[in-house]
Amino acid sequence: MPLNLPSCLRRLFTTRALSLLLTAGITATPACAQQAPASTFVDCSLLVAPEYPVTWPTHPFPRFQLIHEQTIGPAGAFNIDVLLMDGNTGTQMDVPPHSVLRPELKREKSGPFGLAWTDRIEAWQFGGEACVVDCRRLLDQAPNGVSPLVVPADIEAFERQHRRVGFGDVVLFRSDYSDRYYRPFPEGSRYIADVVDRLAPGYPDPGPEAMEFLGQRGVLTAGTDSASMGPLPNLAEPTHYAGLKYGMIWTEGATQLSKLPATGAFYVMLSPRHANGMYSETRAFAITGGELPKRLIAAARNKRAADLSPVLEMKNPVTNPGRLTGRHRQVYVKVDFLYSPDLDLWHHTHLMDATAGTHLITPSFALPAPGTTPEYSPEVRGWLQEYEVAYGPRGFSDRTTEKVPLDWTCGDVRIVDARSLTGSLPASDQPRSPEITVAYLQADEAKHGAFKAGQIVIFRTGHIDRHFKPAPDDKGVWLDPLSGRSEGWAAPGPDAIQYLHKKGIRCVATDAPDIAGVEPKRGLMTYWALGSADMVAVEFLHNLEAVPANGYFLFAPIRIRGCHSGPGRAIAMW
User: Fold this and answer.
1) What's the confidence (pLDDT) of residue 35?
2) CA separation (Å) from 368 to 274, 280, 373?
């Protein structure tokens, strides 16, 4: 039988020596037959915290606020956070309506891309192959208040050294500006405020000609590690329009671009799906090394992607209304603060619960911080005693959103179809949720193979797909099941969570409002099991029917320090 051996092995051994080795049952692994390198996740997002220059500093842009509305104690068993967050917070994404006017206005800059809001951008456009254009020579090379400009020749120099840029690429302009100047106050004033006040040189940026160059090349996604894609003092709008008129989107305020190769990395930005947004806070990251970047780059180039996040809008049921009076979470509110006559639009911010729409649940959501002893209500103390007898000690955690590794919430899709559980409970037995048990998971394994470490296990209940409707027809998502007027959505119990943890699963997800179901006691135990296993959950997905078995799940929350849960955008690529 012919032997297919590595060339280095053929050089090392004669045919006779190989025959002796094989006859003796000995195998050899040559040095050249090494394992393929693992992929590495690089966080390209700025940390969002009040002492950093996270928002645009000029009047009347609102300041970011993280409000710890409820902490674990007698009034509740969870750490509940509220956010006041403008789309220009930290690392952010711009989309065409930032400069392109709506078609019906019939003005000079009107066009079809004037309707390409943050909630309408196709999922494949969020990512692609990173092409890092080195602009470090421009850093601080301009008068105070003036931005040194990236010109087409800089992009052409990149092309001569590497390759031509085009569709499917994310062209990133690296000056290391944010790496150097994004600091806590008072040093943080150098990031934006000192430039606006003409006390320091401007941040490097592409000018209108460079954006025209990219648009004509077919590039639809870009990014800069400067504070904005708008050169100061007077080229911000011309530069924005030059790129956005092509349907381009981009990252502003990226960081750590030095950790990316010039080409070959996969780069993506994932923003909460705010309705009719012309910009949004975002989480940008890259994946380098191994085969995964190639797989995702090919998916983006071939437009193989699906958006898994419902739209955040005031009329939609995106936050928990509570079972009892006074127990609702902060409703999602859009707050207009500055009218732009040129665009005939209001700039706006959002006041919202940190679990609005698609979001991450961290271990610290239900676990107290190390070194603390929460004073639960008598009812919850009884539940905790029962839980610890059955499942072991409830743990402690200070793992908030910024401490959750990116590779925990990204991975190969494993969908567990729980739709067959719908309607399995008696109508008189409400409010209850059908439980996804260990036996149900084992039956899924018997049919589809064992769970594998690192997979994102997604429970497909169909609940949000069936019931997600605007008010006044919005009660099917939350209110009816919570009140017992309808059956709750299927949800895993603590036994199922512990079973998945033993399989090496770090992240579970659901297309239901939450992973806990409608029963307070059972739901809290599920969250305790997740936290005690140092696992996370992504809640409030939809559109799972669009995801094939070979899909790859991508999600990351906004990088907010000290936030116990956090909004984000989930997509799948294949």
Assistant:
1) 57
2) 31, 31, 7
Q: How far is CA 376 from CA 175, 379, 384, 562, in A?
A: 51, 8, 9, 22
Residue 227 confidence (pLDDT): 97
- pLDDT for the residue numbered 4: 39
Give 431's strand partners.
none
Say if residue 238 is in the same domain as residue 383: no
Note the pLDDT of residue 8: 37
Shared domain check, 404 and 298: no
Is the distance from CB of 540 to CB of 468 less than 8 angstroms?
Answer: no
From the CB of residue 313, how many other CB atoms can be counted at a distance below 10 Å? 18
Cα–Cα distance, 532 to 367 (Å, whole number): 8
**Interatomic CA distance for residues 155 and 423, integer angstroms:** 59
- Do 399 and 292 fall within a single domain? no
Which segments in the chain show pLDDT lower than 70?
Answer: 1-36
Which residues, 6+ apart, have CB-to-CB distance to 313 below 8 Å? 274, 275, 332, 334, 470
| Residues 6 or more apart whose Cβ sits within 8 Å of residue 381 | none
- Check: CB of residue 105 under 8 Å from CB of residue 95: no
* 122 shares its domain with 190: yes
Cβ atoms 230, 192 nearer than 8 A: no
Residue where a domain stops, chosen among 239, 269, 303: 303
Q: What is the 3-state secondary structure (H, E, C) of 67-124?
A: EEEECCECCECCCEEEEEEECCCCCEEECHHHCCECHHHCCCCECHHHHCCCCCCCHH
For residue 144, the 8-state DSSP code is B
- Render the burial of 227-238: b for 16+ CB within 10 Å, e for the rest: bbbbbbeebbee
* Residue 191: inside a domain: yes
pLDDT tens, residue by residue, 2-17 = 333 333 333 333 333 3
Distance CA 136, CA 222 (A): 17
Domain containing residue 542? 357-573
Last residue of a domain, one of 303, 329, 345: 303
Instruction: Give the model's pLDDT for residue 430.
Output: 84
Query: Which distant-in-sequence residues (6+ apart) come within 8 Å of 223 by Cβ?
Result: 44, 170, 171, 172, 173, 250, 251, 252, 254, 267, 269, 284
The whole-number pLDDT of residue 344 equals: 94
> What pLDDT, in 10s, does the model give residues 279-327?
999 999 999 999 999 999 999 999 999 999 999 999 999 999 998 888 8
